[in-house]
Amino acid sequence: MGNRVRRLGGRIVTRGAALLSVVVFIAATALAPGPAHAIDPPVIAPGPPPTGPVVPPNPTEQKSMCGSGAVAPGSQFQQTPAADAMLDYTGAWRFSRGAGQRVAVIDTGVSRNPRLAALEPGGDYVSTTDGLVDCDVHGTLVAGLIAASPSPDDAFAGVAPDATIISIRQNSASFSVQGDSSGGDDPNALTSGYGNTFTLALAIVHAVDLGATVINLSEVACAPVGVGVDDIALGQAVRYAFERNVVVVAAAGNVSAQGLCRTQNEVRDPNGSSADAWNSVSTTASPAWFGDYVLAVGAVAPDGQPSGFSLHGPWIDVAAPGERVTSLNSVGIGLTNATQNAQGELVAINGTSFAAALVSGVVALVRSRFPDMSAADVMTRIKRTAQTPDAGPNVATGYGVVDPVAALTDEVLPDVQGRSVMTGHPIVAAPGGDAESRRALEVVAAVMGVCALLAVLAVVVIKKPRQG
């Protein structure tokens, strides 16, 4: 889990490196880094996903006190956060602020906060709360990045401040199966906490049934190739969401010697396509690798380069900032930008968890501006308007860093081969005038789109693509 923190005997102890890694029990002998293998993309089994009551499948107990974030010395919260400086998502608010969107945060819970005015309880698969309790800090950090409202006291805000957050608590490092702190009763649980692939699948289905339009999954189950992840139900759940027009955003995972994402997926051929990278996978990551049904998100540093901890993979779709995170604290009403490590030192909050949250916010902006657009089209738009590297999509950042303004304003048209191309003509900003003015602008936009399509078709007729 991304910089999960707990208070133990009055001392805050960091619970990992900035991504909630849930849900896989693997024998210690199987955790050693394995060699790369050629594997195929995962195939989701036919059939419906699991359903059940919103309660822990096993009796649980709290094994440690709840934690809170920290503030690094000299922090200047009046300065624009690094994520907004890169993405300029506040600049996108003239087109959309996410109104009407319901973003399910399936995480460690979300604490009530005045800057999350539209926060709804979605239930609890860990304990007996309504989902609005966060013992681990992580879920509140994620929710704040997605939808925190701006404040005159600082420069921080979430990407889509008018969106509603539905909090579903699905995992926690502070809980375990009752009477078994090792989590041994659950073959898919981490030994350090409670929550697994099955409860994640249940929570996704529940989020869809609650009317979510976006689902954020800042968590990942990693395993060496050959060991496998028990994610059959999870695959069925993300497909269930996609087929019901819900966009699922999933974190890529963090490479860490202490976690299950221990071995980075390297690229044998730097000039090869992402599809070729299936031949050199050493670590699998679920649900991120269900590429047809989720937006898988890697992390980049403030300079735009891929973060060293961000797990690569042919399933990566886009990237967003994942370092030096500022967001809401789970305790009180303030902000946090640091946690304490095991040595008691303050460290910055980093992780693909938070990159995924930013992308979920962008999805909410797009769905609000284009309410009739399907989940598949929203995913395509966000990928095609990202800042794609010169060499093209890659296994570290996919199509590149998301661009909120471009996602809201660029026109995306399908070409004759089914791919999407950019016309280069921005859509006009949402007008504030009368109905006649709005209709005139809509006509102009439609004419521009038709002209662009004719231009594309003309090029296709003049120059046929090569065969083979």
UniProtKB/TrEMBL annotation:
One of its GO terms (cellular component) is plasma membrane. The active site is at 107 (charge relay system), 138 (charge relay system), 353 (charge relay system). The chain crosses the membrane at residues 443-462. The keyword GTP-binding does not apply. Residues 98-400 form the Peptidase S8/S53 domain. Belongs to the peptidase S8 family. It comes from Mycolicibacterium arabiense. GO terms for biological process: proteolysis. It is found in: Cell membrane. Its main location: membrane. This is Putative protease. It is a single-pass membrane protein. Residues 1-38 form the signal peptide. The keyword Ribosomal protein does not apply. GO terms for molecular function: serine-type endopeptidase activity.
